[in-house]
Design brief:
- The structure is a single chain.
- The chain is α+β, with helices and mostly antiparallel strands.
- It has two domains: 236 residues, Hsp33 domain (3-Layer(bab) Sandwich), CATH 3.55.30; 55 residues, CBS domain Like, CATH 3.90.1280.10.
- The chain has ten helices and 13 strands.
- The protein is globular, with a radius of gyration of 21 Å.
- The termini are far apart.
- The N terminus is likely disordered.
- It binds zinc ion.
- The site of zinc ion has 6 residues, from loops.
Length: 309
């Protein structure tokens, strides 16, 4: 393969249609956002790959959303990494975490990271929501058993079974030999719409199966368009839209304070009396918010002020 070497290429997602608009395809490179997730969570190799695949899968699923909507994937496995959560929106913002980031399991006999064992058996949930700032409305929730814990296979099964759209997803995260360095990450999703003819479906089955591993392509510098070319073969296709992808968390000191105030005055007084301060950690990005005794008193006063006559 010969792609331009573009190690510093930012993360991107490209949406496309193929075969007279009877096939929907989307591909993304996510190396930098997976690296950022790994850095924030201090995750070890196996956990990083499991989280990175889920983050990439969320970015791909979010490609069909409208502004203000978001999709959340919960991989509720019973394996050593614990539950994985990834969320993405229509702006290309992606965030997520894995319950036990400092987890590795023995390599598979073929020398690859054993993500299926690390994730384990369990359930995959996908939740689509709309209306970010006006109170989230749950629009759609689907759940299927995990088929392999390898994430791409599980999401493919979910889309085909729960959302009833024949789909093929491929995801990959490559870890460099050193600790905490994500060498490449990305993925593609191909979906066959009801009008697709049998020849197109057979063609896609072959091209998707024959596509080189995502990690190999992205390590060689492949852009999302290159991933689409491999996935779609010689089908006629055209790009519809593209966007940048980034790890972004919506947490802030202000939101943390609102969360504390929602606990109520009595609870805040208890925290102040027992701990003398409050420390809250955002699961999604590992940011730590520390509120001093004076901060807590200010919130209590504000809450009391708001309720006094
Ligand atoms: Zn956060």
């Amino acid at each position: 393969m010969s792609y331009p070497t573009t190690a510093l290429m930012p993360d991107r997602l490209v949406q496309a249609v193929a075969a007279g608009d009877t096939v929907r395809a989307v591909a993304a490179t996510t190396t930098h956002l997976v690296q950022e997730a790994c850095r924030r969570h201090g995750s070890w190799k196996t956990a990083t790959v499991a989280l990175g695949r889920t983050l990439t899968g969320a970015a791909l699923l979010a490609s069909s959303l409208k502004t203000g909507e978001r999709v959340t994937i919960h991989v509720e496995g019973r394996g050593p990494v614990g539950t994985i959560t990834a969320e993405a929106n229509a702006q290309g913002d992606v965030r997520g975490y894995v319950r036990h980031p400092k987890t590795d399991v023995p390599l598979r006999p073929d020398g690859k990271l054993d993500i299926g064992t690390a994730v384990g058996k369990g359930v995959l949930h996908v939740i689509r929501e709309g209306g970010f700032e006006i109170g989230l409305m749950e629009a759609y929730r689907g759940s299927v058993p995990l088929v392999s814990g390898e994430i791409a296979e599980d999401l493919t099964y979910y889309l085909s079974y729960s959302e009833q759209i024949p789909s093929a997803m491929s995801l990959g995260v490559y870890m460099e030999a050193g600790d905490g360095v994500v060498g490449a990450a990305g993925g593609f999703l191909v979906q066959v719409l009801p009008d697709a003819d049998a020849t197109t479906v057979r063609h896609l089955e072959q091209t998707v199966a024959a596509a080189p591993p995502i990690t190999e392509m992205v390590r060689a510098g492949a852009a999302p368009e290159d991933l689409l070319r491999q996935a779609l073969g010689d089908l006629d296709w055209r790009p519809l839209a593209e966007r940048a992808l980034q790890f972004v968390c919506t947490c802030s000191l202000e939101r943390t304070e609102r969360l504390l105030m929602a606990l109520g005055v009595d609870e805040m007084r208890t925290i102040l009396a027992e701990q003398g301060q409050a420390e809250l950690i955002c699961h999604y990005c590992n940011a730590v918010y520390r509120l001093s005794a004076a901060d807590l008193q200010r919130l209590i006063d504000a809450e009391m002020g708001g309720k006094s006559i």
